[in-house]
Write a structure and sequence with these properties.
By secondary structure, the protein is an alpha+beta fold. The protein has 5 helices and 11 strands. The chain starts with a helix and ends with a strand.
Length: about 210
């Protein structure tokens, strides 16, 4: 699924060229996300757990032609090969997830516990990104966005972010990006687009502060 998504995105950008791309920068796929920040019993951050629900149009495109025993229903097993394609392809894009601990970038390992769910004609990807090494942190900052803004990520309306196993004193906050339509109407920063990081202005931001 993401391999198809990524291929379409880059073919579109390649055909338009970076000189004309700023006028075209808008999303083609929408993802509604919930995230959990996972901690070990000793208070160290161990990983980031995501659930990404794709828009219904893209969900239909991604599942078109997939084998299914019951029409309109896909089991986790039937979606397993597609889930594998997802996580393999997402690695090229750093899983659209960027984390810092105490102000320093932190390395994320390959995803674990990944699977796809199909419900109410919506495809949802579940996966966990472990830290390569669990770390005790005073501050943890996570941003989720597509630098090319081909994919628009947005927090779910209810309980979009939560802590799992974190010390009781830790405080969680999160911020949605500015309204995309309003921001897109503003003159584009050519240097930002040329750097391939135009989508950073639409980042979903999560912050945890611990004593």
């Amino acid at each position: 699924m993401i391999r198809r998504l990524a291929g379409i995105g880059f073919f579109v950008l390649a055909s338009l060229g970076f000189a004309s791309a700023p006028a075209q920068a808008h999303p083609h796929v929408w993802v509604t996300m919930t995230s959990q920040l996972v901690y070990a019993p000793n208070g160290a951050v161990t990983g980031i757990r995501h659930s990404w629900a794709f828009d219904d149009m893209y969900s239909a495109f991604a599942t078109e032609g997939l084998a299914q025993k019951k029409k309109g229903v896909f089991t986790r097993e039937e979606l397993k090969p597609l889930a594998e394609v997802n996580v393999t392809s997402l690695k090229e894009f750093d899983f659209f997830t960027y984390a810092k601990i105490d102000g320093q970038k932190v390395a994320l390992a390959d995803p674990v516990d990944y699977w796809l769910e199909y419900k109410d004609e919506v495809l949802t990807l579940h996966f966990t990104l472990p830290l390569k090494s669990p770390v005790k942190a005073r501050t943890l900052d996570v941003e989720v966005y597509d630098p090319t803004y081909f994919v628009d990520f947005g927090f779910a309306e209810k309980s979009p972010v939560s802590l799992v196993g974190a010390p009781a004193e830790c405080k969680l906050s999160f911020a949605k990006p500015e309204d995309a339509n309003a921001t897109s109407s503003l003159p584009m920063d050519e240097s930002m687009f040329a750097s391939g990081n135009w989508g950073a202005q639409f980042a979903n931001k999560i912050s945890v502060k611990c004593p």
